[in-house]
Design goal:
Elements (H helix, E strand, L loop, with lengths): L2 E5 L4 H12 L3 E6 L13 E5 L8 H12 L4 E4 L9 H20 L10 E5 L13 H21 L5 E7 L2 E2 L4 H6 L1 H10 L6 E2 H11 L11 E4 L8 H9 L2
Parallel strand pairs: 1-2, 1-4, 2-3, 4-5, 5-6, 6-9, 7-8
Helix pairs in contact: 1-7, 3-4
């Protein structure tokens, strides 16, 4: 039975990852800044830790308590996002970069010395591309996270810890599924531009994360796995022509 630690596991993709790990029989520790939905307390094998791991947080103490409760870590998944209303630059850098680095540095000696070991960072297409709807801080935070992933993949590889990233595109999740399904023109647009002919779901990214957090990915290290149905392969000019019929 593996022990998975998930940061940001109380909503969105993180919550789906927690449920998937539970169904697989893992022990799961979830760190979040708020109480999880009441139903999450009934998910088998899960223990929630309410903690704001800001710059002054005692991360070592939190990780010690987690290891004491569930044993050494096998899998570490970063799903946290900055959702505050204060300075977005400081908030995004703190959450995406400073927190990720601090937990990586503190957690690396708390991995299971004999078991399978892996880290997955959930990134974004805005780490590689520039798009609307997100501030420069989000673009820079995700780009920095991608490079941090590569750094730790090289420097923790000798300890048997694989470090990879998953980059989803817009996907149907519990919080937004109804919006896309009711907006037929928008939904149809995604189906038209994505080579696989459908929108992504939270299950698509969850299964990619689960694969990277398993012995089946034992020689995959330092990679950013795009879960986009092939959309990133389409040349923008071709895409524009197909949408405008020119």
């Amino acid at each position: 039975m593996a022990h998975a630690l998930v940061l940001g596991g109380t909503r969105g993709l993180g919550r789906e990852v927690v449920k998937f790990f539970s169904a697989a029989g893992h022990k799961i520790s979830v760190i979040g800044r708020r109480e999880p939905p009441a139903a999450d307390h009934d998910i088998s094998g899960v223990k929630h830790w309410i903690a704001d791991l800001g710059p002054d947080a005692k991360i070592d103490a939190t990780l010690d308590a987690i290891v004491k409760a569930h044993g050494p870590i096998n899998y570490l998944v970063f799903c946290q996002r900055y959702r505050g209303s204060e300075d977005p630059w400081k908030g995004e850098i703190d959450v995406s970069l400073t927190l990720t680095k601090a937990v990586m540095e503190a957690a690396q000696e708390r991995f299971d010395p004999a078991g399978d070991k892996a880290v997955v960072m959930v990134s974004s297409v805005f780490g590689d591309f520039v798009g609307e709807g997100q501030a420069v801080s989000y673009h820079v935070g995700k780009a920095g996270m991608n490079q941090m992933m590569r750094y730790y993949a090289v420097n923790l590889g000798r300890k048997g810890i694989r470090v990879n990233a998953v980059t989803p595109i817009t996907f149907l999740k519990e919080e937004s599924k109804e919006f896309y399904l009711k907006n037929e023109p928008l939904h149809n647009l995604y189906k038209k531009i994505i080579p696989l002919g459908r929108m992504a779901t939270s299950a698509d990214s969850t299964q990619a994360i689960a694969f990277l957090c398993s012995p089946q990915s034992s020689f995959i290290n330092g990679q950013n796995l795009y879960v986009d149905g092939g959309l990133s392969l389409v040349w923008p000019e071709t895409l524009a022509r197909s949408l405008t019929s020119l």
